[in-house]
């Protein structure tokens, strides 16, 4: 599998790239080739006072590339100009990437603003599964918050087609997953949703049995209330390393489980978040 690793060359983006455990987790799920992508906004120029982009960029990318290659991956670097999330998606599409990784914190107001708001933009537009790697906030030398990326997963579902697609990611995540919590949030009836005859608890148990066949210790939970709030409450209760969900759900009319809720989770979760987009061919 090929993966995109987006970096703005900040200390926060270094935390993802230089964390040995994070790299090991990527290797365990089948990533063999990592493409570093740094995007220079169109309104930033190399000649701006106090900014030596060329030298800093070359030094940082060379260091990152060595770290990745020393960890056993093939590595390539891409330096492009434009809107970060659009260029990241474009490169991911061009190389046939199976995963995009981006940090969730950035402090580079004049540099490549890949990390921060771009994570939220990618949550809406990503063309590959997106892993938002949570970085410590408000510290001078930040580290990743939860380095065992896929060890304990919290999977949130509304039983939509895209949620099923997100669950299918366990086919490769299972090689790094030890525990999983499967959560469904019941909300007031939405006219855009089909009637379901099957009890959600039974549907979760059916999914759980598939994971247990892979020796993943699994629990299920049906919660009631606001989807984003309940998913975050489940994160606080179960302390997963990563929340897994689809980026779209049943309804475009309301804030149900998936859709705008996925953006809220990316912005507010304490740990990592993995979003799986719909099949573009569907």
From TrEMBL:
Signal peptide (UniProt feature, chain positions): none
One Pfam family linked to the record: Usp
Source superkingdom: Archaea
Domain UspA: residue ranges: 4-132, 150-277
Sequence similarity: Belongs to the universal stress protein A family.
Protein's UniProt name: UspA domain-containing protein
Classification of source organism: Archaea, Methanobacteriati, Methanobacteriota, Stenosarchaea group, Halobacteria
